[in-house]
Amino acid sequence: MRMLTGQREQVTIEIEKRHQNPEFFAVLPRVKMASKTPAATGRLLFTFKKWYYNACGFNKLGLVRDDTVYENTDVKEAIRRLPEPVYNDRMFRIRRALDLSMKHQILPKDQWTKYEEDVHYLQPYLKEVIRERKEKEEWQRK
Amino acid sequence: NIGLHYLSKRLYVTQAARKAEVAEPFKFPPQEVQVTKLPSGLVIASLENYSPASRIGVLVRAGSRYETFDSLGVTHLLRLASGLTTKGASAFRICHGIEAVGGCLSVSTTRETMVYTVDCLRDHIDTVMEYLINVTTAPEFRPWEVSELTPRLKVDIAIAQQSPQIGVIENLHAAAYKNTLSNSLYCPDYMVGKITPDKMHTFVQNNFTSGRMALVGLGVDHAVLKQVGEQFLNIRSGTGTIGSKALFRGGELRSQTGGSLVHAAVVAESAAASSAEATAFGVLQHVLGAGPHIKRGTNSTSRLSQAISKATAQPFDASAFNATYSDTGLFGVYTISQADSARDVSHFHYAVLPLSQTQLKAEYLMSVENSEGLFDAIGTQALSEGTYHSPEAITQRIDAVSSNDVVNAAKKFMSGKKSMACSGNLVNTPFMDEI
């Protein structure tokens, strides 16, 4: 699970770098690719993201992306702040995945998490935790 | 020789002062309290008192009497929640920001009002005002921060239970009134941990409206306060939920706690704060004795003490209890006695000494001498009446009380339906119908 996360981060970073350097795109041979509109590039990106999500494989165990995030101190604090129903759902999914991995099984295909249905429930709390930590560090520095 | 050394130092200073060309000192004309009422209902009052420290406060008519039955104790939690994250500033920033300028944010609640005060040096007033506005108008009540307040709530309640006086007065109000004023200032035990952020938000939405707020400043410019009031304290307009009238029922509550003392309070309904009788009750309170005037003295001049000392030789303490609210009041006697000296309420003398009027005037004037007392006085008057009466006007009002008024007040107390609360070792304490 951890290896997959690492790979995903690397791939996403690479894609972001490409978007930041539009000149790079200009250097690519334009002859072979048709000139893409932003909408078409968006659709291509979406397809790639969806393929990558399915390739990661945690959806086959019924997990959601934020269930697999590495638990550093910030993430631990964000998890502590989750409202109770959300936390209970997370615990249930993790326990089900642990049970399946122990039995070397996966869920039937109709129960796999779909890319479109994946909710990043932890991100708002995580962003807030990081913002508060940065504020504290800023204050200490002054 | 140290004294001589000090003396010579002082002489140096005076010599230097004489040599320097001193310009005419800047005259500080004494200012009056300015009161403005905005169209939204907000009352703004300020006084320029040339003090280096300023004090700004927001008073809201949102005391414990406005709690509903399913949210008893929400004002207690709001009292503790003043430092939590708001929309404009996180809890960390409020705490450290105010600390950095040497200010102080405090909250206090009465049964009728909640007062949020900040005080700091005059130069930093903008910073702390921003935090004050955030706390009163845009709190967020994040669930994890609110649940962290539960231990503090428990400590507060434990401290209150240590004091028998607080217990008796809370019980007195619970026994005397059917609704509103019977709500305790402290959170009841069964609600600890059950007050959700939703309930707090509902209470704030319903009660923290501009029509029920007053913005008071000491040592601030009136124009600045007015601008702040117009821009920021207009979030919720209107009057919010109308509180119901307090209904006096005159019950009795006894709380057997053991120990050797008995704290007892016997009261009857008196007058509302806005009525003319309220001052008469104030004077009557001082006639009967409202605490010793000499520290650690024997309180021998109080009529109550004199009357009761004829009935028992054991140590005791008695003072008149006077509480006025916006639509009702309580007046009576609070006594602390030994468990086995059962006493009846004594007959009072109806002759009034001018001495008690002077005492009441002195107490009022001394209370507005320091900035907290002055702030309280301006704030409560601004909130309840929308104007400010100078101390001269108040003293005139006290002088206007005639002995007839005080006699009538005393008769009203003696004949009115009583309410009683007592706690301690109640083996010999009479019931209300036996007094």
Automatic annotation (TrEMBL), chain B:
Residues 194-346 form the Peptidase M16 C-terminal domain. It comes from Electrophorus electricus. Residues 44-189 form the Peptidase M16 N-terminal domain. One of its GO terms (molecular function) is metal ion binding. Pfam families: Peptidase_M16, Peptidase_M16_C. This is Ubiquinol-cytochrome c reductase core protein 2b. InterPro entries: Metalloenz_LuxS/M16, MPP/UQCRC_Complex, Pept_M16_N, Peptidase_M16_C. GO terms for cellular component: mitochondrion. Gene3D superfamilies: Metalloenzyme, LuxS/M16 peptidase-like.
